[in-house]
Fold each of these.
Amino acid sequence: MKKKVLAALLATMMVASLTACGSKGETTTDAAADTTTEGTTDAAAEDTAAEDTAAAGETKDLADLKLAFIVGTENDAFYQSVEEGIKAECEKLGIPAPTLGDQELDGNKCSDLINNYVAAGYDAIAFSANDPAGTMPAVQAANAEGVKMFTFDCTLDDQYLDQYLAFVGSNNKAGGVTAGEYVAEHAPEGSIVGCITYASAQSTQDRQAGFEETIQAAIDGGKDLTLIESQDADNDQAKAADIMQNLITKYGDDLSYIFVVGDPTGYGALSSIQAAGANTKIVGFDAGETACQYIADPEVGKIWEAEVAQDPVGIGSGIVDKIAEYFTTGAIAGDQKDLIECKLVTAENVADYLK
């Protein structure tokens, strides 16, 4: 009997012991699971925070920024005014005096400047992409180093939208439309009109396209005009003069209007028109001080009738504002491209554009 009781007691103790081990094992497993869950949750939270920070971008005190801006050429009143806007806005926002670079309308020089600024540890570089394809390797290398890239006046082709954060510049195609509308309205019926362009820059390509499409639309709508093929002066005043001389020789006074996509091109065209005593009129693009003086002049204004005005100071200050926005908030709100509308300048309102 005692043996049976003892056996039963031992059996009970073994069951109790097994149950206790099981409970202890379950408790240990739950604790481990809790620890693992907490660790996983913490790690996930850290990863999410890191992703949010990366998505938001980098922020930095404006007073600590090191910025560089590369204009197309400092030998141009337009870009001189852009630089004025850049410097004034940096001072206004408390950003240290920026470095200003001149690429001299040379893609290789622009690339060298970008590479130098990257090596020197600049936080951001903004440049006028006058040679989009030529500067792309340098831009991609800058992005790989974490330098923030911005463009102004001339931007990169649309397949490279991921290579820069924001662009500020004129609505160049709309400006070309404005020029085309003026010419379509004022050109005599039966006359010839044309364009001297700069085919290497996206901004001037857009101006040319806006002009040509508008003239063609006027022709399709019944206006008796002939639109000749645009000629590329490569932003060179001497080449523009030669092109204009050849056009005058070929078409004579039937060539009523020539649209020039930039003031330097217009200066060359003007010299040939004056030398030949031709009746061709000029509509320009930029509205620099010299061009506006020509419009206001009683004699030269009979040739240089109108300009499409940009806002170079606004472009300069605008790109600084975009950079400041990015480093303040870690992002750029709104559209990637900020396009500033152009205005028509004629003898009636040119006084508003003269300093």
Amino acid sequence: MNLNQLVLEITRPMSGTCLDPTYSNYSHRIQNIVCPVIGLADHLPLFAVRKHSNQRERPNVKRINNNYIQYRNMKRFDAELFKQTLMQTPWDSVFIFDETDDVLDSWEKLFIDGLEQHCPWRTKRVAWVNQAPWITPAIIKQLQFRDALLKKFRRHRNPSVWADYKKARNKAVGMLRNIKRKFYVSKLEQNENDTKGTWKIIKSISGMVKQSKRVNSL
């Protein structure tokens, strides 16, 4: 778990000891820890300030890149079978180590091994985190509708579903073309008097990539 003790100060001056150890395996998320000397008692107060992020973190999901994530497959998870696995796990074996960190690492490995048997990691393709600026909720909804029809056709092979899919696909293509054209027209109008900005937009439309010049070795 890689836990780190973050309190390095004495919290009880009379005995010269630290009675408030604070552990974290994400030390970079702790912004500050303060132990002010206040003479109200022999035990000093301790304040820990944690950095806050608006993005929700999902512990069972790992993002590999913008296209794929790994997640715990809970579809066939059976809590009772998992409990039986935990009961059969040789937990006493962790106490062969003398160091606390080694005991904790050994316990974590046993627990993760049992977890892998019942809800292993799976890889799934997902949408890009940073969508194109012209993508709107309406377009996303249409794309999802198109994909749902294609999935339905692959499952049932119904000609009428295929016809509905082609209509939804063509509508999605038309929506993308129109919104993309409006987006770039608006950008060009905004940069009408900015030559550099105009060329930047043109390059993004045409897909031009600046090539770095390389000097051959003499």
Amino acid sequence: MSIAFITSRGTFVVDLFLKTAPMQGFNMLKLAKINYFNNSLVLEIMKDFYLRIGNLQNPGGTTVYQLLTNNNTMYIRDEINNKLSHSTAGFISTSNSAKDQNTSEFFITLGRDLSRFDSIRTIFGRISENFELIKSISEEFVDETYRPYKNIRILGTKILYDPFEDPPGFEALKTRFVPYGVVKETNRLEYDEILEDIDPEKSLEKIEKLKTQHNAEILEMLGDIPDADARPPDTTLFICKLHPRTTEDGLRIVFSKFGTVTRVDLLKDKKTGQSLCYGFIEFSKAVEAENAYKKMQRAVIDNRIVLVDFCQSLRGPQSKK
């Protein structure tokens, strides 16, 4: 009743809760048996909350029934267990988008309060070996969509015990199914890409450089900077995912504890005057901005987890007119 997931960073083992979630357990075991999870990715890391695993080439995942019947409506229904909570670290849960529409995509809880999922997501297993690996992965650098800049892939799976008989047509499915391949992406590192620098600190610098270049290229395409090599000010931070009710005065109070805030610019819709939920914060010194960046990344402001980064725009905060 266990599956070992062999990843590019190490191996972890999942014990399936077959008594409380037999259908999802059956689905996972049979998909692992045809190597469906090969080349899947860690798609999202919400530090201290969860990390999500799926496949970019098959968004939303699948079920063994869909593969057997070619019917994409064959989902796994919810199997909610009220005795289990998503606030417990190390649980494996479905990543379904709607009621009774569970598939192969799943996430691993990291310990912070996710009790809001208890009534809508199925907890179907737990990490029984090497949760330390999961915690290590949760520390990876991520982009604005919370996806790691360096890919972390599932290279294979090993079924440690499967109590279920194979369904009709399964042998033919095993023969014809080919796992999704690896698609090379230019804006992130592949898991087996070797960095030139042996020094770990320099390797991290390369990842940070890739992150900055990626953001700069986007801004260049939008016409915000003359070219991707231009250097933005190091005293200005960009902040996003703010709550609509967050104000400039509120941001000034929060960030003033890190130094002298010379300007706060919260962007608003020109027609409605409503907040666009992102803006800029300018400090008098670069060291103050750096300290704020380190302390406020994924901090909670007005009940929202915010993202903070160094400004990639040469325009930065705009003067009020």
